[in-house]
Each structure stands twice: as structure tokens, then as C-alpha cells.
Please model this.
Amino acid sequence: MKKILATLICLLLVLTVAPAMAEDITIGALLSDTSNTFFVTMADAIEAKGAELGVKTIILDGANDSAKDVTNMEDLIAAGVDFVLYNPVDSDAAAAVVEKATAAGIPVISIDRSVNGAEVVSHIASDNVYGGKIATEMIIELMGGEGAIAEIQGMAGASAANERHQGFDEAIAAAGDKITVVSSQIGDWDTTKAMGIMENILMANPEVKGVFCANDNMAIGAVQACQQNGRSDVIIVGFDAEQIALDAIEEGTMVATVQQQPALMGELGVENALKYLAGEAVEPSIGAPVALVTKD
Model:
């Protein structure tokens, strides 16, 4: 009877103390570009999951400027955050940013893009290599296994861009010599820049049959360039499954996109940050599944 009573008292203490502990925790999040709808979704999920678990969250925008990441991290340290979720602008430059947090005794989880050269608690991301590969394989299949293909890459230095390009390269290598890559250029995730790149591709290589774009913003730029040049025959596949791309797929101007789960990544970030702060083990790599989305 005494053991049962003691157990009940312990449970009561856990239930009353845990919320108070959660309320004292602040999780900071550094996101590379909160003007991008992908990261808006992630930010909203971080805030919602934090509110659900009684945790305060501070979200700062890197504005696609790696120097801004440095000052943002300094601001989070000054604010006394307990943990940082970090989506770096540049994976190489991110090491110095993480080292600032480490020196202040603040653990970090990287999300979507990795940190090169510094240790983090965990890395949460989609399988970008696989996503780039299946997207490119679909284009090649629809091209009948032969012809000219192009690629519009993401931002130089971003691990997600590098990994999606790796997937593209793997699919091209497996396709054999009947597939020719006529262009592979950096589009910086930007619609307007991608539109200009695609216009140049169409002028220089009118035989191009398909293009893989490393995000949906750039895929829409490619769509716009094709429409202006009367090219409804070009197979365009994007990445992220943004609503604008889903609409384009419904309309038939895009063939497919790779679905990521930015909300899930944000939620996993908050949950695993709390696990780590509670002394629980956290996996060093946590994957969020991806899949092709077509009109069907």
C-alpha cells in the first residue's frame, strides 16, 4: 500500500512539475528564408508544436544571407534560448554559426540542410538524393529514354541543393548515353532567375525535352519561360509540392513535383529538442519521407 501511495505521489509530482519545466524552455529557430512558403510552413509548425507542448519559440529569418545567420545566432544566445533548430543558408558557413552556440552551451539540431564541419545533436531532413533521382527518372521515362535534358539547381553551398543535384546525376548516369544534359545551372531557388535560365536554355538548345528544377519556385519560372516561347512539350518536374506547383500539375503545365514534409520536419525538431533536454537519446539522423506527386 505504501509503495502504491509513493508511486501515485511521484506521478502527481511529474504531472505538476513537467508543464512548469516546459514553460521555462525556449527553443530558437534559424530558418534560411521565411519569404519562401516551404519555410513558412516549417515555421508555423515549429510555433504550433511549441505552443502545444508549452514551449516558447523564437523564429528568425536568415534572408538567404549567411552573414545574417551569424547575427541571428548571436541574438538567440543573448535571448538565453535553451536549444536551436538551424536551417542554414550555407552548409559550409554554418559551422562557425554552430560553434557560437556550442561555446554558449546551447545544443543544435540542423533541419533540411546539414552543417558541414561542426557537430550537431541530430540532422532532420528529407532524402534529397532519392527525391532528385526519382524526379529525374520520371523525366527520362517520359522522354522515352533518349534526348536532351536540363537541370536548374538550387543555391550553391546548400546541402539540399547539392543532394538533389547528386540524385539528378545518379539518374543520368544510370540512363546511358542516349540522354544528354545540355545545361545545369544555379537558380538560387528563385522563380525569376529560373525563368531567365530556362529562356536561355530554350534558345541555345531548342531540342530540350525535359528539365528538373530543384524546387517548385524555379519550376514555375521554367513553366513561365516555356509558355512565353510556345513550348508546351517540355517535361517539367519540381521539388517541394508547393500549392502553386500542385495547381500547375492540375493544369498540365508541370508533370510532377517531389513532396517534402516541412511541417513534419519542424515538429520533429521541437520534439527531439525536448527529448534531448530531458536527457533522452536522440538519433543522429532523422528522415522525413518524400514521394512523387503527379496529376493522378
